[in-house]
Amino acid sequence: MDKTYYVYLLASGRNGTLYIGVTNDLVRRVWEHKQGAVPGFTKQHGIHRLVYFEICNDAAAAISREKTMKGWPRQWKINRIEEANPAWRDLYEEIAT
Predict the structure, then answer these.
(1) Who contacts 66 (Cβ-Cβ below 8 Å, separation ≥6)?
(2) Cβ count within 10 A of residue 24
(3) Which contacts (CB < 8 Å, 24+ apart) does range 63-71 have?
(4) pLDDT in tens, 21-32
(5) CB-side exposure of 41: number of CA atoms within 13 Å?
(6) C-alpha to C-alpha distances, 88 to 8, 11, 61, nearest whole angstrom
(7) Which CATH architecture best describes the domain 5-96?
């Protein structure tokens, strides 16, 4: 059975430091970032605002998309965020309810 996977972009703030990740539980994973539950880049740099995500139907597609997006120039990532979320709102509250 296929499961839903997500490729997501976190930001420290508008035009701030960006992080791209992949998960099968977006609410849980973003909550972990927000709580600093896992040591690493996002905790060290205060990156916990969910500003963009995409839904994929399987793990392979999500991982491939994550790798593609990580290879993009920074401006492409910013453009993608601003097309979908011009105010750089934290989308966590919308997905967590």
Answers:
(1) 7, 20, 21, 22
(2) 14
(3) 63/22, 65/7, 65/22, 66/7, 66/20, 66/21, 66/22, 69/7, 69/9, 69/20, 70/20
(4) 999 999 999 999
(5) 8
(6) 13, 9, 25
(7) 3-Layer(aba) Sandwich (3.40)
Q: Where are the domains of the chain?
A: 5-96
The arithmetic mean of pLDDT across residues 7-12, rounded, is 98
Over the stretch 54-65, which tens digit does the pLDDT of each residue have? Answer: 999 999 999 999
Stated length of the chain: 97
**Whole-model pTM?**
0.94
Q: Is the pLDDT of residue 97 over 90?
A: no
Rounded distance between C-alpha atoms, residue 85 and residue 51, angstroms: 7
